[in-house]
């Protein structure tokens, strides 16, 4: 069974124009900030971060 991966993100939307979002995402668990230019890019950033999350040590 696959382990559930978790991460904490803080999203700051700086612009919302033509149904699009632009802003900054803070990956709180790693103190890393990245800018995004669309909602799809935001989702891709978060998805990549979850792929990066290390498996818990047993």
- Strand segment count: 3
How do the strands line up in the largest sheet? 1-2-3
Spatial shape: elongated
Mean pLDDT: 86
Number of helices: 1
- The low-confidence runs, each spanning 5 or more residues with pLDDT under 50, are none
Radius of gyration: 13 Å
Biggest sheet character: 3 strands, antiparallel
When the domains are counted, the total is 1
- Protein structure class: alpha+beta
How far the N terminus sits from the C terminus, by CA atoms, comes to: 14 Å
Element pattern in H and E = EEEH
Residues in helices, as a percent range: 10-25%
Fraction of residues in β-strands: 35-45%
Descriptive keywords:
58 residues; alpha+beta; 3-stranded antiparallel sheet; 1 helix; 24% helix; 38% strand
Overview of this structure, please?
With 58 residues, this protein is α+β, with helices and mostly antiparallel strands. The chain has one domain (9-52). The chain is 24% helix and 38% strand. The chain is built from one helix and three strands; from the N terminus they run E-E-E-H. The chain has one helix at residues 39-52, and strands at 9-17, 20-27, 32-36. Strands 1-2-3 form a three-stranded antiparallel beta sheet, covered by helices on one side. The mean pLDDT is 86.
